[in-house]
Design a protein that fits this description.
Strand order of the largest sheet: 3-2-1-16-15-14-13-12
Structural class: alpha+beta
Largest sheet: 8 strands, antiparallel
Shape: globular
Number of strands: 17
Strand content: 15-25%
Helix content: 25-40%
Distance between the termini: 38 Å
Radius of gyration: 21 Å
Mean pLDDT: 88
Length: 413
């Protein structure tokens, strides 16, 4: 039974409507669950401005990096079956990477590189400590729709790593590489492996890499902020989207589409320690290990990350095998629970799972480059949800700066 006051929680919907819709965002929806029971759902605005179609409960969204936790879970399923160890060297599954190098200096015509200090392992890919970057993907992004996963792997083998594996944290294409490895081990496409082992058992019937023609009418268009005009414009028309076409590569780091209810089923699986409706997807110990901080000696992202990840909002925030995890709320200057697991996607999709409070939240929108990202995430943050707990005096509002952990730039795919 929930102890959240729905009447008070409705203020969140009022705020989103008044503050962001439609001037700053075409539309959005939010779903809150406690103890596996829905306690609040709200939708507002449009999924397609040009066609005047509103967001609905079954609207399908591009979830971008919210694909990553599902890919990580697939790796853990293979681990439970004895088909992979997270201590395995990556070259065991990608022999093309036996001779990787690390960038030291120079430009593309005169690079100075050295061998890595140690081999890259699966754990490095799961924790984004591989030395890979998103810049490496940009080298062939324009051709990616015509390339196979094997061709991508070959191209990447010639691009130096940013640092030796294990030295730092840097958000990257690591999870996409895990997707390739899953395909090589299972001898299935990533789409088929997901469907057979995660999506179908959870009845996530609207989660896929490709939108079927029968579902296009429910697919949201995607928008992007145009800084020169200070407004959002159409980025991907739902009726003419690449997601409606067969994908040559299933990108494990960014390729899925889903609905708010489907993704809540995945969150509930985490809440229930790997089982739901008497179906066991993953062992409870494996699940809890997957969402536990993996940075050594209790270090947080602030201490170990490169670039934007080393900013003060990342104090008290660790990284698991599948997303961020709160390890020190005091250092983070927030009221968030220790162990709170979360991640988001580039187009303003977000989720939180707080197993201590038994609360899960999924937020959906379709907006790239959103300029008011920080404030929006503050008001859809789990701590704002907890503010409406009906127990008097139990919760407080957290400092705004802590919400910067979910800045959109950190989920660039």
């Amino acid at each position: 039974m929930s102890n959240i006051s729905v009447n008070r929680l409705e203020k969140l919907g009022e705020y989103l409507s008044e503050k962001y819709i439609p001037e700053s965002l075409p539309g959005c929806s939010i779903l809150v669950s406690q103890n596996n029971e829905e306690v609040y759902y709200f939708q507002t605005g449009m999924r397609d401005n040009e066609k005047n179609k509103p967001i609905e409960r079954d609207t399908i969204f591009r979830i971008y990096s919210m694909t990553k936790p599902i890919t990580s879970m697939a790796i853990m399923i293979l681990m439970e079956r004895g088909l992979i160890k997270i201590s395995d060297e990556v070259e065991k599954y990608i022999p093309e990477w036996k001779n990787l190098s690390v960038y030291q200096s120079g430009d593309s015509n005169n690079k100075v590189t050295t061998p890595p200090k140690r081999k890259m392992i699966i754990h490095d890919l799961l924790t984004h400590r591989s030395g890979l970057t998103y810049d490496q993907y940009s080298r062939f992004a324009n051709e990616s729709e015509n390339l196979s996963s094997d061709e991508c792997i070959k191209i990447l083998s010639d691009i130096p790593l940013m640092f030796s594996p294990g030295e730092h944290f840097n958000y990257s294409i690591s999870t996409d590489i895990l997707g390739f490895i899953i395909e090589r081990i299972s001898k299935q496409s990533l789409a088929d492996f997901f469907s057979e082992n995660i999506l179908n058992p959870l009845e996530m019937k609207d989660t896929s890499f490709q939108i079927l023609s029968s579902k296009i009418k429910r697919f949201s268009s995607c928008y992007i902020y145009d800084s020169s005009a200070n407004r959002y414009i159409l980025e991907d028309d739902s009726n003419n989207s690449k997601y409606s076409k067969i994908q040559k590569i299933n990108w494990g780091g960014a390729g899925l589409t889903s609905t708010i209810d489907d993704y809540m089923k995945f969150c509930n699986l985490i809440q229930n320690n790997g089982s739901i409706k008497e179906k066991n997807i993953i062992g409870s110990n494996t699940l809890n290990y997957m969402i536990s901080n993996q940075l050594e000696n209790g270090k947080d992202l602030f201490k170990i990350a490169k670039g934007k990840w080393s900013k003060s909002p990342f104090k008290g925030i660790g990284y698991s095998l599948a997303g961020s995890v709160v390890i020190d709320p005091i250092a983070n200057m927030s009221t968030r629970s220790i162990g709170e697991f979360s991640w988001g996607g580039a187009a303003e999709t977000l989720f939180w799972v707080d197993k201590k409070e038994n609360i899960s939240v999924v937020f959906m929108a379709q907006m790239l480059g959103f300029p008011k990202d920080q404030n929006l995430k503050d008001y859809t943050d789990l701590n704002f949800i907890k503010k409406f707990n009906s127990t008097p005096g139990k919760t407080i509002f957290k400092p705004v700066e802590a919400s910067e952990i979910f800045s959109k730039e950190d989920f660039v795919d």
